[in-house]
Amino acid sequence: MISVLDLSPVVPVVVLSDASVAVPLARALVAGGLSAIEVTLRTPAALDAIRAIADEVPQAVVGAGTVITPEQVDACVAAGARFLVSPGWTEGLLGAMRGSGVPFLPGVSTASEVVALLERGVREMKFFPAQAAGGTEYLRSLAGPLPQARFCPTGGIGPATAPDYLALPNVGCVGGSWMVPADAVAARDWARIEALARGAAGLSAGGTCR
C-alpha cells in the first residue's frame, strides 16, 4: 500500500457542505501540485464529495478524514476513499481500518497512544490536535525514544508553522486547510486555491522549498 505520509508535504483538509464544488476544488488542488486530498466526514455532503472526486478526478488521491466508526470505514471505501484518517482510535476502529485494504492514519496525542499503536504494528499516525497537544516541541521530544513512529500533524497548522513541523525527522507531511479558505470555496475562486496549493506543494521535508 502507498504511504499517506509520502504523497505530498501538505495534505489539504477539506470540509464541504456542497458536493457540487468537490470536483473543481480537487482539480484546482491537483493543478497546484497537491494530489492527496482529505475530505472530512463533518458534513452530510462528504461521502458524495469523495465519490465525485474519485470518479471524476483520477489524478487525485482522495481520502476520508474524521473517520470514527467501523461503519464509516466501510462507507468511505465504498465511496472511493483511498486512505483513511481518524482523530483518535479504538480497537474496533483500528481493526476496521486494518481490514479496509487502504492506508490509514489513526490519531494520537500522547506518548502512551503512540506506544500502543507501535505495539500493534502501526508506525504511521496522525498527531492531533497538533498545536493544542504540544506542537513541534512535543513531536521533537517523541523522536528520541520513539524514532520508529512517523506522523502527519494536523490541527491549527498554517503556512507560517508548517515548515517547522516538516523540519522534524519524524514528520512525513502535515495536514491543513489554509489552501482551501472558506471564502475562496464559497466564491468558487479556483485560481486562488490553485495558487495557495502551489505554495504549499513547494514545501518539503526540512521545512524548505523544493
From TrEMBL:
Pathway note? Carbohydrate acid metabolism; 2-dehydro-3-deoxy-D-gluconate degradation; D-glyceraldehyde 3-phosphate and pyruvate from 2-dehydro-3-deoxy-D-gluconate: step 2/2
Q: Gene for this protein?
A: eda
Q: Which InterPro entries did the record assign?
A: Aldlse_KDPG_KHG, Aldolase_TIM, KDPG/KHG_AS_1, KDPG/KHG_AS_2
State how it assembles.
Homotrimer.
Q: What is this protein called?
A: 2-dehydro-3-deoxy-phosphogluconate aldolase
Molecular-function GO terms, alphabetical: 2-dehydro-3-deoxy-phosphogluconate aldolase activity
Pfam families tied to this protein: Aldolase
* Assigned protein family: Belongs to the KHG/KDPG aldolase family.
Recite the UniProt keywords alphabetically.
Carbohydrate metabolism, Lyase, Schiff base
Name the chemical reaction catalysed here: 2-dehydro-3-deoxy-6-phospho-D-gluconate = D-glyceraldehyde 3-phosphate + pyruvate
Documented EC number(s): 4.1.2.14
- Source organism per UniProt: Streptomyces misionensis
Is Cell membrane tagged as a keyword? no
Q: Which NCBIfam families match?
A: eda (TIGR01182), PRK05718.1 (NF004325)
PROSITE patterns, A to Z: ALDOLASE_KDPG_KHG_1, ALDOLASE_KDPG_KHG_2
